[in-house]
Amino acid sequence: MYPNYRISVEVIVWHDEKVLLTKRAEHCKVAPNVWNVPAGKIKYEEIARFVSRSERGN
User: Structural domain boundaries of the chain?
Assistant: First the structure.
């Protein structure tokens, strides 16, 4: 299904006894409208330590 991906990454952000959650868009093919921790997939050419930065848009 995703031949150029090797791993998925989930980030748990805990601050002041609260956890950050994101809601998937309703048009997503997998788990539409589902609340989850921020997550994404790593492509083969990506370095894992930079993925959390790219997933949050920095």
Answer: 5-55
